[in-house]
């Protein structure tokens, strides 16, 4: 019997939302072809474009439900880091408000259906939930109360950070459940309970009011259960902290942003940080689920890839003043651009044909 079927009888959503429960059921995905916890490499997302202009848009594109979660051979290290963060920081990183519990239970039930189908060598369905074959962990999602916060439990299953937004009577969506363990630059405890708009204004997202707020609000209101969308972003990080960018400030400091960081003098330790985000609506509760998968690669690795150093240098130069401030360009631009330009010249000197780039790469790769 489907866990989702059991869930529909055990948990009646009581969220105050304008969304009407939908009969939609998450499609069963095919197994990932030849997936291996040892050999399946992370997808090489390189979501930056040539200048001279940097256009600020939501950048959403339709995805297939098959690709909701992407797991790879970095799973063991992500799993271990998440477990360590949960043990040391607990509710600072993982939390579910009472109003969001039905949505969190629904989300967890969907994971228990999706993951064993998509990654059958890693997960196995059980009568009460799911088993991680590799780690030998079992998760009971049926007994109430759960053994731990539902978002925390979900976080142990995937490489992504997770967030659930709940619509309130004012029509705004609020962050009322999350497991944010590897975000690098922001903390769940700072954003928890905020509206979607407040999260972005509080985070000083460039041109949010002018170019993004209206479109984002419309998207949330119109988002259908039958749809899933994704987007990618990227940053340059001047240290090796996947969970937290320690170069900007200690994690528990009051001020934790680029303004607190010192100027960088070497590309040693630089990392290319890219998020692959997805957004979809849960059918029963009407809540909106965000996933944030961080890809974290040493800069000195990606500059060996054809076309990457030249394209990244052009993209960084194209940032407007507000985007540059948001991404901390002042901290690293001199060192970074000199390095990227040098690596680009090396590629040209060995005969790289720039006219063939479109044949080799397409966004967001």
From TrEMBL:
<dbReference type="Pfam" id="PF11927">
    <property type="entry name" value="HODM_asu-like"/>
</dbReference>
<dbReference type="InterPro" id="IPR021848">
    <property type="entry name" value="HODM_asu-like"/>
</dbReference>
<protein>
    <recommendedName>
        <fullName>Mannosyl transferase</fullName>
    </recommendedName>
</protein>
């Amino acid at each position: 019997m489907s866990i989702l079927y059991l869930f529909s009888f055990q948990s009646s959503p009581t969220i105050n939302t304008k969304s009407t429960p939908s009969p939609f059921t998450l499609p069963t995905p095919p197994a990932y072809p030849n997936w291996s916890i040892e050999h399946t490499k992370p997808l090489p997302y390189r979501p930056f474009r040539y200048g001279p202009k940097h256009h600020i848009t939501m950048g959403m594109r339709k995805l297939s439900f098959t690709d909701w979660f992407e797991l790879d051979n970095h799973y063991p290290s992500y799993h271990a880091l998440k477990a360590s963060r949960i043990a040391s920081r607990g509710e600072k990183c993982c939390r579910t408000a009472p109003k969001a519990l039905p949505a969190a239970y629904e989300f967890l039930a969907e994971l228990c259906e999706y993951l064993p189908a998509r990654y059958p060598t890693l997960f196995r369905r059980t009568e009460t939930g799911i088993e991680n074959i590799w780690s030998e962990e079992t998760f009971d999602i049926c007994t109430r109360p759960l053994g731990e916060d539902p978002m925390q439990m979900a976080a142990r299953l995937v490489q992504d950070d997770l967030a659930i937004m709940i619509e309130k009577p004012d029509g705004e969506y609020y962050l009322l459940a999350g497991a944010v363990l590897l975000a690098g630059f922001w903390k769940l405890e700072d954003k928890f309970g905020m509206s979607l708009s407040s999260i972005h204004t509080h985070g000083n997202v460039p041109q949010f009011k002018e170019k993004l707020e209206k479109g984002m609000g419309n998207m949330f209101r119109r988002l259908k259960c039958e749809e899933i969308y994704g987007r990618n972003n990227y940053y340059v990080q001047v240290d090796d902290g996947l969970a937290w960018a320690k170069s900007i400030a200690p994690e528990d400091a009051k001020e934790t942003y680029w303004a607190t960081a010192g100027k960088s003098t070497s590309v040693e330790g630089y990392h290319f940080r890219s998020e692959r985000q997805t957004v979809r609506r849960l059918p029963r509760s009407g809540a909106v689920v965000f996933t944030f998968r961080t890809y974290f690669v040493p800069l000195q690795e990606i500059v060996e890839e054809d076309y990457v150093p030249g394209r990244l240098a052009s993209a960084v130069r194209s940032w407007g003043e507000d985007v540059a401030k948001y991404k901390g360009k002042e901290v690293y631009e001199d060192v970074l651009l000199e390095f990227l330009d040098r690596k680009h010249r090396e590629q040209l000197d060995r005969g790289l044909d720039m006219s063939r780039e479109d044949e080799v790469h397409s966004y967001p790769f």
